[in-house]
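hey so u asked for the seq, here:
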Amino acid sequence: MPTVSVGRDRLFKAIGRTYTQDEFEELCFEFGIELDDVTTEKAIIRKEKHLEEDEDSTEDEEVIYKIEVPANRYDLLCLEGLVQALRIFIGLDEIPTYKFSKINGESVLRMNVKPETSLIRPFVVCAVLRGITFDEARYNSLIDLQDRLHQNICRRRTLVAIGTHDLDTIRGPFTYEALPPQEINFAPLKQMKSFRADELMEFYKSDLKLKKFLHIIENSPVFPVIYDRNRTVLSLPPIINGAHSAITLKTKNVFIECTATDLTKANIVLNTMVTAFSVYAERQFEVEPVQVIYPDGKSFVYPDLSEYSIEVSLSYISNYIGVTLEANQVSNLLTKMQLRVKKAISEDKKQCHFIVSVPPTRSDILHACDVVEDVAIAYGYNKIPKRRPASLRALPLNQLTDLIRTEIAMNGFTEVLTWILCSYKENFSMLNRKDDKLTAVIVGNPRSSDFEMVRTSLMPGMLKTVGHNKDHPKPIKIFEVGDIAVLDETKDVGAANRRQLAALYCGANSGFELIHCLVDRIMEVTGNPFVPVGDNTGYYIKRSDPEFLQGRQASIIYKGKQIGTFGIVHPEVLNNFDIPDPCSFLELNIETFL
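ran it, structure tokens below
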């Protein structure tokens, strides 16, 4: 979940109210966000540099609130969007209406896209904010929003790259081109001299921030570049902007361009930028459009500030939340969440529907269920009564699993939970087993030798647990109930899970009789009697596998089929897992009892 850092005093001033920390935490919870941490800017710097805290350092330091917001709420990634949402939520503001500036067709700025851009980043969207008044805090907020969007929806600039420019330093119309790097020459941001684009790639390989974006274009035969009418370079997306059009505190008119490989995400990013900072425009919430003309002659006007509608019935909302709500109540709750609502009654006057208008700030609203979620947030999750859905029933296998866990714990064993992935060596050679190539599910491209396959037995994890805890007071009595996986051609995925029970006793003596007693107890509580060999009405035991000591091992036969094994673990196996004490081990399949 993204975290937004904002100054407490500036936040409260923008909201128009002052809160105690507990009151603000409550407000955040009600709105569906979380106050994650309270710190200061100097404390953050000290933490990053691993410096000791000064006892008097908190005096006169600005308090910073770190607020955790949902990953799909891009409108909350800056102070401006956060303040606007909270003011609407607590009823201080109405939902804003975003609109285009009134300009004639000839005055509209144009961005001409060249055909070569299709080879690398085919899309571009643009907008203009006029009459912006910047101070240092607003300027920093603009830069921080770009960085957060780049890290989030832009996927580290691979999908979308944002460029912001001082419009008064450049002249339209603009062109978006893709040229060989040797043909691109300009002075990048914060640099005095000009570089060729290929030289920039080398120059920024030592830059801690920018080097991680070079791979996006450095191996391409052409680099994307944006020029103005005078062939001044605005930006080399997604790497760096040009120094000529850099924004300063004196900037009044801002030109925003987003180049992308994903047009949908580019529109979301552009909308997020202009809706958040149009609050500072000379005419609030007014955005100047830009016409983008593609090589095939098609043209589009951006940003897309249109609202789209979703129809949701009152019964749908009430049923999903589990609370009976009145139509007017739902309308008020959705308004608090920045959604405009119109009520509509069906012809038979039995059904109430809502036409919900989704503004350009709420790109997270995709389906009627998203509208229900907003109603639930505004209503308050703590006010929704807890209930068990009528259709919710535990699976028989899970019920049996819980009963067996309880029974074994009552016999003095401690439950452990081990990895379902293990190394190939641990699953076979370290257990004196051979791979028949017909059972094991192998990981095709493992990141580590510790996770090469899905376990076919619980035994490796149990022995590793004892090996890592061999200094623990003896005896060690542990058990696990978990899944293994085996190849199965009858399944649509080619493999099947099996629910297994394993128990291990490690002490000064083998404890074989305790494991044998545990087998008998499990069979007793599951209603399976011990029977003579060959009788299929219950269970019996017979000699077993190579991972156990010869003559001190047995297979468990249940209704004519082998369902498990138990015995004293072979000294070679114990040595492989660096276990100095004797161990007895049991493993059986519990699905057979159903």
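The two ends are 42 Å apart (CA to CA). The chain has a mean pLDDT of 90.
lmk if thats what u needed
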